[in-house]
What we know:
The complex is a heterodimer.
Chain A: H1 4-18, H2 26-40, H3 43-55, H4 62-76, H5 84-89
Chain B: E1 35-40, E2 43-48, H1 53-59, E3 85-86, E4 105-107, H2 111-126, H3 142-150, E5 176-178, H4 188-197, E6 202-205, E7 212-215, H5 231-235, E8 241-243, H6 244-249, E9 254-259, E10 268-274, E11 277-283, H7 296-300, E12 315-316, E13 325-326, H8 329-347, E14 352-356, H9 362-376, E15 381-383, H10 390-399, E16 417-421, H11 425-428, H12 430-441, E17 445-449, E18 466-468, H13 475-488, H14 494-500, H15 503-513, H16 520-527, H17 531-543, E19 547-551, H18 553-556, H19 561-574, E20 585-587, H20 594-599, E21 606-607, E22 611-612, H21 616-626, H22 638-647, E23 652-656, H23 660-663, H24 667-676, E24 679-684, E25 696-699, E26 708-711, E27 716-720, H25 732-743, H26 752-762, H27 771-777, E28 779-781, E29 825-830, E30 855-858, H28 860-865, E31 873-877, E32 882-889, E33 897-901, H29 909-912, E34 929-935, H30 941-972
Parallel strand pairs in B: 1-4, 14-15, 14-23, 16-17, 16-19, 17-18, 19-20, 23-24, 24-25, 29-33, 30-32
Antiparallel strand pairs in B: 1-2, 3-4, 5-8, 6-7, 9-10, 10-11, 12-13, 12-25, 21-22, 26-27, 27-28, 29-34, 31-32, 31-34
Helix pairs in contact in B: 8-25, 9-25, 9-26, 10-19, 13-16, 13-17, 13-19, 16-17, 22-24
Amino acid sequence: MIDQQVNNLIKMLDQIIANNRHHGDDDKVTDVAADHLHKFWARSMKQQVIECANENPEALSGLSRMTIGKLAGAADSKESLPHPQCDEDR
Amino acid sequence: MLHYYDPSIQSYEPSKSGLNPDFDYGTPASVSETLVSISVDGRAITVPEGTSVLRASALAGINIPKLCASDNLEAFGSCRLCAVEIEGRRGYPASCTTPVAEGMEVTTQTGKLAKMRRNIMELYISDHPLDCLTCPANGNCELQDVAGAVGLREVRYGFEGENHLDAEIDDSNPYFSFDPSKCIVCSRCVRACEEVQGTFALTIEGRGFDSKVAASQNDPFMDSECVSCGACVQACPTSTLMEKSVIDAGQPEHSVVTTCAYCGVGCSFKAEMKGDQLIRMVPYKGGEANHGHSCVKGRFAFGYATHDDRIKEPMIRDSINDPWKVVSWDEALAFSAKKLKGIQAKYGRESIGGITSSRCTNEETYLVQKLVRAAFGNNNTDTCARVCHSPTGYGLKTTLGESAGTQTFDSVMKADTIMVIGANPTDAHPVFGSLMRKRLRQGAKLIVIDPRRIDVLNTPHGGEGIHLPLRPGTNVAIVNALAHVIVTEGLEDQNFINSRCDTGAYNIWRTFIAEERNSPEAMEEVTGVSASKVREAARVYAGAGNGAIYYGLGVTEHSQGSTMVMGIANLALATGNIGKEGGGVNPLRGQNNVQGSCDMGSFPHELPGYQHVNDPKVRERFQSVWGVPIDDEPGLRIPNMFDAAIAGTFKAMYVQGEDIAQSDPNTQHVEAALKSLDCLIVQDIFLNETAKYAHVLLPGSTFLEKNGTFTNAERRINRVRKVMEPIAGMEDWQVTMALSNALGYPMNYNHPSEIMDEIASLTPTFTGVDYDKLEQLGSIQWPCNDDNPQGTPTMHEVEFPIGKGRFAVTEYLATEERASRRFPLLLTTGRILSQYNVGAQTRRTNNSDWHEEDVLELHPSDAELRGVSDGDWLGISSRVGHTVLRAKLSTRMLPGVVYTTFHHPGSGANVVTTDNSDWATNCPEYKVTAVQVEKVSQPSDWQRDFVDFDKRQQALLKPAMGQQESRHANTLK
Lengths: 90, 973
């Protein structure tokens, strides 16, 4: 069962892909879409769609899965930065 | 206030900066570059050809008496007081209508002229009440001043003859009165209504002695076409047209120049005061955005600042079902900090966020996003631009390299064709709307792309515009069709494209746009607009010397809002209408500081100056000044915050000056999100709809109570100057600073100028901005840096920030929000002139006399199908909600389209708007909602709940309001 929040993210992702289909083949389109998510989506939103792709891949279109795969690859290669002040506070 | 002699003005300065905005030079400036030398009373002066003798004399420091002349109106020559003698010419020509000529020798004072002027004044005064001591204009009356200047000592005609002294006063307008007994029929009000405002509501009725000023068909002002802009009141040289606030309180004794806090035009005003009481707002002639003009909001609707509903003390409560408790600032801030820290400790660093205000100053907005990024330790900051112009930021940055409009407002005066898309300037940006109308009267052509027939199409003497009444949601289809015509009919500016644009991107776009599927004929069925009209519009735009595009929320608030913005930029690039006056791409920003709030880093992915958070070099610079690490991932946008709140992962919000509960779409979803929060801190001037869900209420300050800057739609940074003390003791920037300090992240600024200095040190487009320069120049249009030390009126003149302009492919995709059998009509929303946004300010003024409630406009044929008459109650149902509004039949829209406004919270306009949003930015699709409409007899369930909830919340506030009143009274003692 996918919650409403993730459903909204999937809808947003589908919209992003649909509006970038003109960039060419699937590889190029998903590059652009993954870059868009990378630039504009919050960390928690990225994590949620990546989890959804892992746990419920059937809920996503092929292009969405491809996009998230690229996003997940980029996320893996990057370490999340600690935030000393906040982390020290609590 | 009239000045007859200003010793500081001794000679003409070629630049406008040499002029005194408080002085009336009699006739408008000439823009000729040819100079002419004359002498006035022996004084030599050189002025541009076309300058009147009256103005040349004033520039030489010689002030000729006048009554019908004013430098914001064309010369009229009716009062004859400004008559002069000119060597070699016969008679006594009026200096206002006489242009200078090389070598002209003018004499302004002779015995004959003095006698003539006295005789004229004698006639005027013979039909004018002699109640100067009790007249509201006493001390500020041009008629009185001129009588003194010409030496009037007697009125030989007596006062017993036929006269107008018993003429009836028209008090119908809530803000000014019209007392025709004091009128001298100089026509300044009539000409101001025509030339400055462009409404043509006033006229001179009758002839000779019977001549009198009349509104419309001799109607009361309130029932006439008058839009209450105040231009006539300002123009009146007597007290015939007079602000009621002056009648009540007397003439103001000092003034402060500041910037209006309503729409994105950013008009400059003189706040005229008596002590700490604001008497009136008078548009400031030195304001580069408005040049002395105003609208009914900025001019008159300032009473909200002292309204009884103002929150004057901080308040807290544990639950939204508890009564508010008035506490000290320290207690409120400590309570807030404890809650925020506790929530972060329990739910994580990213569980809280903040919303900056597009109504607050740049400095305040900067501090809120800094608080979020530095003290909260995440990038969960967003602003109300999310729901209006976020697609402008995305679309213009992608194509032109900068998230801002390209022109000055004045640029419209050089446009040959004006294209208005999804904007309603005469209502939403009225002062610019008047300037646009002036250009249309001069012969510029007009194209309007809008489902509604907006008022600018009915510009008196403006020629016939081309209206493309497209179906809501088909903007991209029509902009593609326009571009298709330009490309396939060879109307492109190839020189511009070759020299200024990226060739690869252009070739891809050109191939796409030339495809037959983008032709007007192919798109006709989609847009509902005839192909021939689209072709005509494309030819008119591309064939113009200068083509200017102005657009508004009718472009951005769509599922393809960002695509449409790029489509608009494509049009301008293809026709070479970038980088020159008279052209450009001009987003008309809704609120006073939408541009500024975006510039200041309110968006979750960008630091100030549109610098992305994932750029390590950018973060490094900010970190070195702020002293803490900055998260390298974007934060949540407003709609994502709501979703996360409902999901239970987002638990606290700090909202400054933004009423998300009323302004954001799908109200019930927003309400559910707000109810899910453990801590909602609202900083506002009233208990707005959002504050009813809050746990902390921090009193905000109005624009009158603070120092800072606003940035208007033309990137103009204008000073906001404090004219009265903040009602709760702190300006908004001080509150944010105190909250940050309570959270343990130190902020210590003594004045907003210090905040601006920090902004300038971190923002490449602001490096040359500081308060001293703002004082010196009056205002600055960014970018202002080493390359452009005086600012940049027109952008992209030489190159784009991204080097070459980038055409973008704009594939049309229909929105998912489509009409169906169940929801056969398309609802679109907008604004009207008298109210502003959620109405929090204007509903607390007499502006509500013009608009007491939101109504649903529908076409008579749709009404007939449903048996609906004007004034019936209508239930409006969409896929997400249901509300009830009164019907107003209108032919402004085509059948199938209905329209409403969202100025009153109880209307529930956003109960029916959906979560659909722009693909790139999540800007909500307010402009397209499929609905059904039917007659009903009672309010909707939501409206009944709204009334109950409102009553409950007002009851929970009431004891605290009483307590704050007594505490406040004690403090004042």
